């Protein structure tokens, strides 16, 4: 039994050579989940040695593009590589998760012509059969659930609880997640400002992946709907979180030494461990012990 978080995206909407957007894959006792699907998630899954076809459940925190823009690529790749696999994907997230899915791959969806071509062109059908698929080829099957804070999803050996994130409402809804496993609990704040709902959801968690887009010193006047490094550290302290993993990191806070200095300055506030997440880092939980591996 073990739970491993693969950091696929630890950046922001601004592309950088080493980080871009948000996405995390979580292997819980062999069940592979995705939390968000930001830029190049499908490619980063491959870089992490993971298969799109092994992901059966995806959770969205909210529908900003840095958290969902690779969703069509992921859906189509999973379907195309799937061959004989029959299990449909389940996509969950705040509204409009269902509408976005329908507009991508539904009968009037943006990618429907590609899907029809792959279902009908003889060469594409032959490749599908070669991958273990059968004919006639069927379109991608995705079950969707638009969920609200408080929703609980139960997996084989895990439970995903949800709470409210305070980000850019009312334009987009935001959901924070708490994954309970036999080896410990992992919170994904999504994009949010520090708030009581996250403190409550994260209470006593072994790990919290929190957005940290900058230091307060570098960005004193733009904090609405967002969390700074200091805000994330204070929330981790308030919630008695064991390990704080900083994600959604902007270029300034991710520059060498900047986060280390800011974390050191918060040493009196929080005695837990703080990790600045690099892409393809793994956070491993085994019997509530947390290890970060590059
Ligand atoms: Zn956002």
From TrEMBL:
Q: Which UniProt keywords apply?
A: Endonuclease, Hydrolase, Nuclease
Which InterPro entries does the entry mention? AtsA-like_MBL-fold, Metallo-B-lactamas, RibonucZ/Hydroxyglut_hydro
UniProt-recorded Gene Ontology molecular function terms: 3'-tRNA processing endoribonuclease activity
Superkingdom per UniProt: Bacteria
Record keyword NADP present: no
Domain Metallo-beta-lactamase, which positions? 33-248
- Could you tell me what this protein is called? Ribonuclease BN (tRNA processing enzyme)
